[in-house]
Design a protein that fits this description.
By secondary structure, the chain is an all-alpha fold. It contains 5 helices and no strands. The termini are far apart.
């Protein structure tokens, strides 16, 4: 059994999943928008470009996931390595 202080340091399962690059393809965009909010005293207007980039990232990878699911490819969300290959084949960031 873990000491009490160690239990409080562990992240909840949902948080760990969202921080996993194989699960969350938009981790960099999410971190950038969170950082922008912290740096700009939580002024949403100052960070609208970061929010838009995150939203476009989610839309892009959601469309990839839907296409893979329709084609019967498992897992529906490409791993981080597969995403790097996809982005490399496109030549630039689509979002």
């Amino acid at each position: 059994m873990l000491p009490r202080w160690e239990k409080t340091l562990r992240m909840p399962m949902v948080t760990r999943r969202l921080r996993d690059p194989d699960v969350n393809p938009c981790l960099l965009e999410s971190d950038a928008s969170t950082r922008c909010m912290a740096e700009n005293n939580y002024d949403k207007e100052s960070c609208s470009s970061h929010f838009l980039k995150y939203k476009n990232c989610r839309k892009f990878w959601n469309s990839v996931m839907i296409q893979r699911r329709q084609n019967g490819v498992k897992p529906p969300m490409p791993t981080a390595a597969e995403r790097d290959e996809i982005l490399g084949a496109l030549g630039k960031m689509p979002y």
